[in-house]
Write a structure and sequence with these properties.
- The protein is of the alpha/beta class.
- The chain has two domains: 168 residues, Rossmann fold, CATH 3.40.50; 148 residues, Rossmann fold (3-Layer(aba) Sandwich).
- It is 30% helix and 26% strand.
- The protein is built from nine helices and 16 strands.
- The strands form four sheets. A seven-stranded mixed β-sheet has the order 12-9-8-13-14-15-16, with helices on both faces. Strands 1-4-5-6-7 form a five-stranded parallel β-sheet, sandwiched between helices. Strands 2-3 form a two-stranded antiparallel ribbon.
- Helix 1 crosses helix 8 and helix 2 packs parallel to helix 3.
- The longest helix is centred in the N-terminal third of the chain and has 17 residues.
- The two termini are 29 Å apart.
Length: 331
């Protein structure tokens, strides 16, 4: 099937330029020429330095640090494409921020992930391509087509190639258990689940009474190589709590993997000095050189994104790619 657009253009904000260049390299085309900068008054300025009239335009932007700047860059780039009469505009968002604010879990709070979806559509996106949303229901916040890819299989292949016969996958909480179970099944290993349980005695914290929590492990990890899997690592606090629990239960070695390396606050230092043998992640978010260490492995999603972008442009089913490459839904 041929594309209804004669040409394709790929542009990028400053959210993850290295990934955007890698995607274009896989596509065999140059990254689109655009100026994306910030004035001294903190206003974002965008200019497309080439024509996009009636072209199939893909704007790659990871919503990385500084987050508000990256969101505004994306919105302004989408608006610039729309006003330059692009034939179709697809927002490629490897990491979708505000994924944890997908519902009202307490009074008088917003649903920020829905607000962000509304802004992306108003700015001019006609479809969205993203990777491993924190909550699957975020797809429903859009009224335009959303293709959610999974990079979990890239992580699965990495650990499968190690050919361990004593591995076990560990979900850091009950909420991620379904995806962790699918991860474990893909590896052909058992699953353990770390579960937080409230205890009855009340403690004073920040001027309020609260019930402390303690971790309980469902599954036997004694003498096993444990692979903790999650969609993202932010501060690393939850992961390190699980690490302590696994050590107390006699785990032989501990590994951690995630799709999105947010690495906020002092996460890098905490992970570097932890008992974790190796942290495996992807390049959906940029990881500066100063935040890398010998125990960090970064796998690229550029091939996956490039193939899906090419299929969207050509009007070919994305499901076929999943079947051919062995990618399966882990949601």
């Amino acid at each position: 099937m041929g594309s209804r657009f004669d040409e394709m253009r790929v542009f990028s904000g400053n959210g993850n330029l290295d990934l955007a260049r890698a995607v274009c390299h896989r596509l065999g085309m140059p990254l689109g020429d655009a100026t994306v900068t910030k004035f001294s008054n903190e206003n974002i300025f965008v200019k497309l330095n080439e024509s996009v009239r009636e072209k199939d335009v893909f704007v790659i932007q990871s919503l990385s640090f500084p987050l508000s700047d990256r969101i505004m860059e994306l919105l302004i780039m989408l608006d610039a494409c729309k006003r330059a009469s692009a034939g179709r505009v697809t927002a490629v968002i490897p990491y979708y921020a505000y994924g944890r604010t997908d519902k009202r879990d307490q009074p008088r709070v917003p649903i920020t992930s829905r607000l962000l979806a509304d802004m992306i559509q108003v700015a001019g996106a006609q479809q969205v391509l993203t990777v491993d949303l924190h909550a699957g229901q975020i797809q429903g916040f859009f009224s335009i087509p959303v293709d959610e890819l999974t990079a979990m299989n890239i992580l699965v292949r990495y650990f499968r190639d190690k050919h361990w016969d004593d591995a076990i996958v560990v979900s850091p909480d009950v909420g991620f258990a379904k995806r962790a179970r699918n991860f474990a099944e893909s590896l052909g290993v058992p699953l353990a689940i770390a579960e937080k349980r409230r205890v009855q005695n009340l403690t004073q914290k920040d001027g309020q009474l609260s019930k402390p929590e303690m971790l309980n492990l469902i599954g036997d990890v004694r003498g096993k190589r444990c692979i903790i899997v999650d969609d993202e690592i932010a501060t690393g606090g939850s992961i390190l709590e699980v690490v302590q629990l696994l050590e107390s239960q006699g785990a032989r070695e501990i590994y951690a993997c995630c799709v999105h390396a947010v690495f906020a606050a002092d996460a890098v230092q905490r992970l570097k000095t932890s008992p974790i043998c190796e942290v495996v992640t992807t390049d959906t978010l940029p990881i500066p050189l100063e935040s890398r260490w010998d125990g960090l492995t970064i796998l690229s999603v550029s091939t996956l994104l490039a193939e899906v972008i090419q299929r969207i442009h050509s009007g070919v089913s994305v499901d076929i790619l999943f079947q051919q490459r062995g990618y399966t839904s882990l949601g």
